[in-house]
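Hi V.,

You were right to ask for the full record rather than a summary. Here it is.
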Amino acid sequence: MAALSRRHMLSILGASVAAPAIVRAQSSEPLKIGGMLPLSGPASIEGRQIILGLQFAVEEINAKGGVFGRRIELVMEDDESNSTKGVTAVRRLIEREKVPFIVGTYATGVAAAASKVSAEYKIPMLSGGSTGALATDQNTPGDPWFFRSWPDSNAQGEDTAKAIVEKFKKTKVAIIHDNTNYGVTLAEQVTRVVGTAGGSIVSRDSYNAGEQDFSSMLTKLRTQRPEAVYIGGWAGDGANILRQAAEIGLRAQFVGSGSMLSDDFIRLAGPASEGFAVASLYEASTPNPVGKAFGERFRAKHNQDANTFSSLGFDSTTIALEAMRRAGKPDGAEIQKVLKSGMKDFPIVQGPAGTTASFNAKGSVDFPNFIAVIKDGKRRLDI
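Predicted structure:
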C-alpha cells in the first residue's frame, strides 16, 4: 500500500488541508490534538481500525461543544510503523501543530522511540494501540509520559497462556512469533506461563514481520503434533499463517495475540479462522455497561460493531480530552499531572465492568483480558 501524504490523511479525516493558520487567542480557533498511527505499511490493517475510535471520540466531544468552548481538530500523522518516521511525526505535531498531547502509536518500537521525544517536550502520549511492555517500562516509575489504558504484553501473554492450558486444556504448545519487541515479549511470557501452568513448549519459531511464505515452518511443525499453536505478531501475518496451516492440514487449537482482533483478520484468514482464540480487551458483547453503551453508539454511526482496536483508540482519546478539561488548559505538563493520579474515577469502555483510567506507576492500566473465540465468522467472548 502506498504511503499516504499528510495532506491526504487530513482530507480523509475531514480536517483542513490548507496550510496551518497562525494560532490566535480567539476562543473560536479550533483546538488541535495529535494522532499518530500506521495508516500505511505492514500494520495498516490495525491502524485503520484504531483511527475510527479516535475520530468517533472527537465527533462525540465536538457534538457536546468541544473543550473550553473550542472545537477539537484531530491532526493525524502516518508513521508507517517506522521509528524514524514516528520521531519525525512527533516533532512535527509538537513543534508545528502545537498539540497538547498525542494519541499514538501502534508498533511498540515506534511508540518507544517517539515517546522519548514527546517526554523531552513535556507532551504526554497515550497509546494508539501499542501493547508491548517496552513502551511503559522505559517510563520513570511514578512519572510516566507514555500512558496505556489497558494491560501490557506481559499481562496479555499471561492471560492467553493460562487460557490455553486451563480453559482449552491443551498442554503441548508450539509458539510462532515475529521478531518485533511485541512478538518476542509475548512469546517469552507464554513460554513461562505455560510451563508454570503444567504445559510444555514443543517448539518455538520466529519470522520477520511481513513474510508471506510460512509453509516450511508449518510443515515441520505438523510433525511435532502440537495441541495448541500460539501466534504472536501482526494481523496480516497471523491470517497468512492460519490459511497456510489449513492448507497443509495442521490441526490444533490456534491462539493469537491481541493484534488479531479485527473483522479484517477474520476476512483475510477466511474459514481457517474458525475456532481461533484471541485475548480481547473489548467486544460489543462486553459485560461492561460503559463499553456496551459505546458499542451501541458506534454501531449506530458506522453500521458495524466496535472492536478492541476502535475501543482503545476511543479510550485513549476520551481520557486525554477529559484530562485536558480537568487540567483547565491545553498544556502538556498539566495534562500529564492529571493523567498520573487524577483519572481514577473516569470509566473506560475496555475491560470488565467498573474499569477506570487508573494508571499504575509505569503508566499502564491493569485488568484481566477477555478471551474471544471465532465461531461462525464472529468473535464471541468465552466467559
